[in-house]
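Example record for the data management plan.
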Amino acid sequence: QVQLVESGGGLVQPGGSLRLSCAASGTIFTYYNMAWHRQAPGKQRDLVASITGGGRTNYADSVKGRFKISRDNAKNTVYLQMNSLKPEDTAVYYCNVQAPTRDYWGQGTQVTVSS
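Corresponding structural encoding:
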């Protein structure tokens, strides 16, 4: 059974940094697109960043220059480095894998940016 497990969330002050990790088990996603999405209370789940198997990245305008997505295919893991965090970054962050037949999702990790 495929499982995606996020970690690294927590409470941070504005301007601070966090690094999220998503470890996949059950199969290998070396050649699949992977992404991070986030959802704040009462809002839609939105794409934050994505990365292809070849390492090509894409970012939401709101996080460009502050966040960086990366992957380690040998470890079947995707990361999200978040710098210069703002209160509006507060959300539950979800890992996503785009397999040919379906999408897989992690359980989410809470990120709270507050003074």
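Summary line stored alongside the record: The CA atoms of residues 36 and 95 lie 5 Å apart.
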